From TrEMBL:
Entry's transmembrane regions: none
Coiled-coil regions, chain positions: none
PROSITE patterns for this protein: RAB (PS51419), RAS (PS51421)
Gene Ontology MF annotations: GTP binding; GTPase activity
Protein name listed in UniProt: Uncharacterized protein
Domain of life: Eukaryota
SMART domains: RAB, RAS, RHO
SUPFAM superfamilies: P-loop containing nucleoside triphosphate hydrolases (SSF52540)
Location within or outside the cell: Plastid
Cellular component GO terms held in the UniProt record: plastid
Amino acid sequence: MMEYYRGALGALLVYDITRRVTFENTKKWLLEVRQFGSPEMVVVLVGNKSDLGSDAPSSSREVQAEEAQIFAQSEGLSFLETSAMGNVNVEEAFLEMITKIHDVNKRPKSFDANNMVIHDPLTLQMGKEVIHIAATKHAPNCCAY
C-alpha cells in the first residue's frame, strides 16, 4: 500500500454528499493517508454532488456541509463542496490543494537521517548524535574552495 503514497504531496478525499457511507469511508482513507503518506501531505476533503443537496424538501443530501466542515477542522483538513456535473468548485478543490502544498514546501526544512524525513533547517540526527550546521559556515574540509 505504501507505494501508492510514495512521493505524494497531496490527496483529495472525495465523498458523495448523497451517500453517507462514502463520507464514513473518508475517515478510513484519512487513516491510511496518515499511516503511509508523509507527515506534510496536504489533504483536502471534498463533498461532491452539491447540485443534488439543495435545501429543498426533495434534497437527497445525507451529509450536511456543517458536519463535514467540523470533521475537516478537527482533522486539520481543508474542506469544500463541488458539483462535477455543474463544474462548481472542481478547479477550486485542486487549487486549494496546490496552494496548501506550495505553502508547506516554502517552510524551511532539515533532514532526519534515521527516518529519512525532512523536519527543520540545518539539523541532522545521526543515531543519538545531533549535528547542527550553521547556514553560512561549511564543515571542515567540506565544500570549501
